Amino acid sequence: MADQTFDFTGSAYSGPATQGGTGGTGSQGPQGTNGTSHQSTSGSCPWVCDSAPTNNPGGDGGVGGNGSKGAKGNAAPNGILYLNDVTGNVSIMVGGGNGQKGGKGGTGGAGGPGGNPGNNPTGCTAVGQGPQGKGGKGGNGGPGGDGGDGSTVTVYYTSITGQFHNQTTAGQAGNGGDPGDPGAGVGNNGQGSPGTGGNPGSASVIRIYQTP
Amino acid sequence: MDFLTDQQRANFASFNQRLGLAPDELIHDTTEQHAQLKAVNDGPVIISSNPGESHIPVKIVPVGSIAELNKMVGLPDNGDDSDVHYPDPLPEHQTSLLQTANSRAELFAGLDDSTFETVKKAATAFLMGNSARLADHEPMINAMMFPGQVALATGSDLNIPAGQTYVIQGNDPVVLNYGRITVGTGAQIKVLTDTTLSTQIFVQQ
C-alpha cells in the first residue's frame, strides 16, 4: 500500500550509466632468443647445447575505459493543489530523484599471446611459445550523478477534517560506478578504482495555505 | 455535479474559464471513464500530456507565452514568495543573443549551460512567485520555452480505488479540474510532470 497521497518525487533511473570500454589486447611477446650449440670434438661427437632457446611473455592487456558519469537525478515536478474541502489525512512527499549510479569501469584487455620461441639447435631442448601476458587493469568506475533538483508544491484548502503530513527529501547523490574487472591473462594488473559519489540535489518546499 | 454547493459549482466554473474552457465543460464523462479504467488492471492509470498514452482523455491547449501560462495556472503575484528562488539576471552576452540569433537553434547553440538552468528557474519563479520580478527574464523564457502546450482534464468525479496508483506524466504540464476527487485507502497520485490540480472536494479514505 502506498504511504503518500501525493508523491512528487523525481523518477528513479533503472540502471547505472554506460560501462567503460574493454581495454585492448596486449601485443604478442617478442620472439625468444635462439639457442646455440656446438658439436663436441671428442667421443662420438655429440652436440652440446651452449644456451637453450628462450621465449617471452605477451604484453600486458590495455587498461579498461572509465565508466560514464551518472546522469543528474530527475527534478521533482512543481505542483499547485487547490484541494478546498478536504476529508481525511493527506500526505505529500516532494523531492528530486536520486542521481544515477556511475558506469562500471571497462574490463581490462586480455594479455597478449606469448612470443614465439627462439630457434632450437641440435643438442638443445625446445621450448614452447611464451606465456600469455598479464590481463589489463580494469577501468575506473564512473562518478555518480548529482541528485535531482527539488521543487515547490503549493497547497490551498478551505477546511480539513484530518491533517496534512509533509515530507521533503533531497535527491540522493548517485553512487560511484563499480570498478572494472581485470582482463584475462597469466596474472593481471588488478581492478580499477570505484567511482566517486555525486552531490545531493537541492531542497524542496511544501507550502500550505488555508483560504476563506 | 449535484454534490457540489452553488459556491463550489461557481468555483469549478471559474477555474474552467481560467483555462479557456466553457464554465461547465467536462472533457470526459466520469462514469464512462471509470468503466474504461476497469480494463487497466495490471498497471497504474496514466494521465499524460501525451494523449496517446493517457488512459484518461486530455485536451491539448497551445500556450503562446509564459504570461499566458501564468494566467492559466500561476499563483497570484501578491502571494507569499518567501520560498521562491528568483535567479540573478542573465549576463549581457547571453541576452544579446535574442537580438542576433536568427533561429531557435542558433540561439540554443550560443547559450551557456548555466543559462538553461537559470531560465528554467526563472520560469518556475514566474509561475510560483511574483512574475513582475522576472520581467528581465521573460523574453528569454519565451524564446527558449514557448510556444508550448498544456494538457487539460476536467470531470465531475475522479475516484481512485484503494491500492491503485494514478500517474500524472508527460513532457508538458498537466492541469486537472474536478468537482470531487476521492483517493481510496492506500491509493496514490504519483506526479512526474508539473501539475496543477483543482478540486472542490478532496477525500482521502
List keywords for this structure.
heterodimer, A: 212 residues, mainly beta, 3-stranded parallel beta sheet, B: alpha/beta, 8 helices
Task: Give, in order, the helices and strands of chain A.
Answer: EEEEEEEE
Individual helix count of chain B: 8
> Main β-sheet of chain B: number of strands, strand sense, barrel status?
4 strands, mixed
Cα separation of the termini of chain B: 21 Å
Helix share bin of chain A: under 10%
The largest sheet of chain A, given as strand count, sense and whether it forms a barrel, is: 3 strands, parallel
How far is it from the N-terminal to the C-terminal residue of chain A, by CA?
Answer: 34 Å
- How would the global form of chain A be characterised? rod-shaped
Average pLDDT of chain A works out at: 93
Which two chains have the most extensive interface, and how many residues on each?
A-B, 32 and 35 residues
Order the strands across the largest sheet of chain A as they lie in space. 1-5-7
Structural class of chain A: mainly beta
Would you kindly provide a brief summary of this structure?
The complex is a heterodimer of chains A (212) and B (205). Chain A has 212 residues and is mostly beta strands.
Structural commentary:
The complex is a heterodimer of chains A (212) and B (205). With 212 residues, chain A is an all-beta fold. In chain A, 0% of the residues lie in helices and 23% in strands. A three-stranded parallel β-sheet of chain A has the order 1-5-7, with no helix packed on it. Chain A has a three-stranded parallel β-sheet with strand order 4-6-8, with no helix packed on it. In chain A, strands 2-3 form a two-stranded antiparallel sheet. In chain A, strand 2 (36-39) and strand 3 (47-51) form a beta hairpin. Chain B has 205 residues and is an alpha/beta fold. Chain B has eight helices and seven strands, in the order ααββααααααβββββ. Chain B has helices at 6-18, 30-37, 66-73, 92-95, 97-100, 104-110, 113-128, 138-145, and strands spanning 45-48, 59-63, 148-160, 165-169, 174-183, 188-191, 195-204. Chain B has a four-stranded mixed β-sheet. The A-B interface holds A 1-2, 4-8, 10-11, 74, 77-90, 151-152, 154, 157, 162, 205, 207, 209 and B 8, 11, 15, 73, 75, 80, 83-84, 124, 127-128, 163, 165, 183, 185-205. Strand 4 of chain A pairs parallel with strand 7 (195-204) of chain B.
